[in-house]
């Protein structure tokens, strides 16, 4: 079967799981799931294409193409494309057979569909259709239709809630949370019943759509311009004490009053949390523009903002939230967090606090917010309680995004880099000396960092290539001025890269025909994505949510498939 053949090939190539994942651009847990049989990629899917290409590249780098050819019974002088085709056929030779633990009828349904996910969890928990139906007090034929993809329950139904609760309870009772976390590709300490439910019913977001999300974020950052719009004239009854605002229109009025007050008073801090539907904000373009202007004016005025995001949404929605807040994040005045605790399904909560001045607070049954009541609070004792509530919420969060205007090269690490210019770290020392004292000094700082990253495991770097008609520059990083190369200097640089690849079998330096972005460089590692903005006011933009990390890993994998020349 697929898992056994993959293990045989990896043993033949002396390839570890992390090494294979690095070449494929996968999260390491993907290889573990392939080897365990918990996941089998589609033969004609992007995941299988990346895996096959990774195995071929490992064989090439380790000089084991002859051994691979013998295992696949390939004729002498077989070309790369034919070898890749035979390798794929070998891995998936028995894919049309029903896997031992796969429910009948699941082979034809999408890999990330509800049915496939349910099947994987039931296999993990060793649950048959009959056993699960007894736990749910339902008919086993219904479970069979769920697993086959013939039916998908509504996420907000009672039966769906009961299904998730039973599966989660079984997972905890059988001590299978670690294995379930691997299936979901999330850290075990972030796994909860709520996270499991969101994953089980989540829409399929393919690797290509994830890749597009990462590319879009880089494009938005690349075009970012730092400017301040004029603050609108918004007048309010400043003598109004307390009170209630009704419906979305009332909430918008309260929020504009809240932000205008923060701007006029130069409030030191705003504390923001809301898990209700965002229609109140996005449904009125005029309000949204005024909200953005007032928020931007407040941070430029010295107001720090601490915001807790709820990211139990799709990757596209998360990306929209990040890009929408970008001007605020780039100010360096925003602390951003995301909730790790389970969201209360019965009530939504909105809490905006300006410590010592005012707060807006509301609780609603989901679906009633548009006609609900929102309390304006300025009583000192009530404000103290609101602030304590926010602080308790913050204890159940992890950092989402941080932006630093002051950073050093030593703070940036990654097993995969997407460069906007030639990096100094991978040039020979004599070339750095030749280009000037500042470049030489920067190389002495960054070269040991590169060496450390090369030693730690699989490493990949995408570098803009030069041509005889193109003037190349070194990266424009703090402590490193951009300088031009001659053609001869560029060719020396390339030779040095080739030497690095020859001595480091698990390193890949991929030359791009042109820079993908003018003002951003991205470094991807297991815990975050660091994006260096090198525009007029350089900044280090760090995203730490697992979904975004996976999106960037998929983007890098697609770049590798597109631009790798086989070296």
Distance between the termini: 30 Å
Q: Can you list the strand order of the major beta sheet? A: 1-7-6-5-2-3-4-8
The biggest beta sheet reads: 8 strands, mixed
Relative helix content: 40-55%
Shape label = flat
Percent in strands: 5-15%
Structural class per helix/strand content? alpha+beta
Unreliable stretches (pLDDT < 50, length at least 5) are: 96-111, 467-471
- How many helical elements? 23
- Rg: 27 Å
Q: Indicate the mean pLDDT.
A: 79
User: How many individual β-strands?
Assistant: 15
Question: What would you say this structure looks like, in words?
Answer:
This protein is an alpha+beta fold. Helix content is 48%, strand content 14%. The chain contains 23 helices and 15 strands. The chain has helices spanning 2-12, 17-24, 28-36, 46-61, 65-72, 80-91, 114-124, 129-136, 140-148, 158-173, 177-184, 193-201, 207-222, 247-265, 279-282, 285-300, 315-324, 326-329, 380-394, 429-435, 437-455, 487-503, 546-563; strands spanning 244-246, 269-274, 304-309, 334-339, 348-354, 358-364, 373-377, 397-399, 401-404, 416-418, 459-464, 507-512, 520-524, 529-533, 539-543. The strands form two sheets. An eight-stranded mixed sheet has the order 1-7-6-5-2-3-4-8, sandwiched between helices. α2 (17-24) packs across α4 (46-61). The longest helix has 19 residues, at 247-265. It is flat and about 85 Å long. Residues 96-111 and 467-471 have low confidence and may be disordered.
């Amino acid at each position: 079967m697929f898992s056994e053949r993959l293990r045989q090939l990896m043993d033949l190539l002396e390839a570890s799981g992390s090494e294979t994942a690095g070449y494929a651009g996968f999260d390491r847990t993907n290889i573990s799931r392939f080897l365990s049989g918990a996941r089998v990629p589609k033969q004609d899917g992007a995941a299988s294409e990346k895996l096959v290409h990774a195995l071929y590249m490992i064989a090439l780098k380790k000089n084991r193409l002859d051994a691979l050819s013998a295992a696949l019974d390939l004729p002498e002088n077989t070309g790369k494309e034919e070898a890749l085709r035979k390798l794929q056929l070998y891995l998936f030779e028995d894919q049309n057979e029903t896997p031992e633990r796969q429910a009948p009828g699941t082979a034809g349904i999408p890999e990330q569909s509800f049915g496939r996910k349910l099947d994987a969890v039931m296999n993990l928990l060793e649950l048959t259709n009959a056993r699960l139906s007894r736990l749910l007090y339902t008919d086993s034929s219904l479970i069979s239709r769920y697993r086959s993809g013939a039916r998908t329950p509504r996420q907000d139904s009672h039966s769906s809630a009961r299904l998730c609760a039973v599966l989660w309870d079984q997972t905890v009772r059988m001590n299978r949370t670690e294995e379930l976390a691997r299936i979901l590709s999330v850290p075990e300490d972030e796994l909860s019943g709520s996270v499991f439910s969101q994953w089980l019913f989540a829409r399929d977001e393919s690797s290509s759509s994830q890749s597009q999300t990462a590319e879009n974020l880089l494009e938005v950052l690349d075009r970012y311009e730092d400017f301040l719009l004029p603050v609108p004239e918004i007048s309010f009854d400043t003598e109004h004490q307390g009170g209630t605002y009704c419906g979305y229109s009332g909430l918008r009025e309260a929020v504009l009053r809240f932000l205008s007050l923060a701007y006029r008073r130069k409030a030191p801090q705003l504390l923001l949390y809301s898990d209700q539907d965002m229609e109140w904000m996005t449904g009125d373009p005029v309000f949204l523009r005024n909200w953005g202007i007032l928020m931007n004016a407040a941070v430029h005025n010295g107001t720090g903002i601490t915001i807790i995001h709820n990211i139990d949404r799709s990757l596209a929605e998360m990306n929209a939230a990040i890009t929408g807040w970008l001007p605020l994040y780039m100010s360096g005045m925003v602390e951003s967090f995301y909730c790790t605790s389970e969201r209360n399904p019965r009530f939504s909560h909105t809490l905006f606090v300006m410590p010592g001045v005012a707060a807006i607070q509301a609780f609603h049954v989901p679906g009633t917010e548009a006609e609900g009541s929102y309390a304006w609070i300025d009583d000192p004792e009530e404000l103290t309680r609101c602030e304590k509530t926010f602080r308790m919420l913050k204890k159940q969060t992890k950092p989402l995004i941080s932006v630093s205007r002051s950073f050093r090269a030593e703070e940036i690490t990654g097993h995969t880099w997407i460069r906007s210019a030639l990096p100094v770290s991978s040039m020979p020392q004599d070339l750095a000396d030749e280009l000037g004292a500042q470049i030489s000094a920067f190389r002495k700082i960054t070269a040991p960092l590169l060496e450390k990253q090369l030693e730690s495991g699989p490493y990949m770097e995408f570098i803009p290539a030069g041509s005889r008609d193109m003037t190349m520059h070194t990266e424009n990083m703090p402590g490193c001025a951009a300088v031009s190369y001659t053609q001869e200097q560029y060719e020396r640089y390339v030779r040095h890269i080739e030497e690095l690849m020859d001595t480091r079998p698990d390193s890949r330096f991929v030359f791009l025909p042109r820079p993908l972005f003018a003002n951003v460089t991205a470094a991807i590692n297991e815990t975050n994505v660091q994006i260096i903005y090198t525009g007029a006011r350089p900044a280090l933009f760090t995203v730490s949510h697992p979904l975004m990390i996976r999106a960037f890993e998929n983007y890098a994998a697609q770049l590798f498939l597109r631009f790798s020349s086989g070296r």
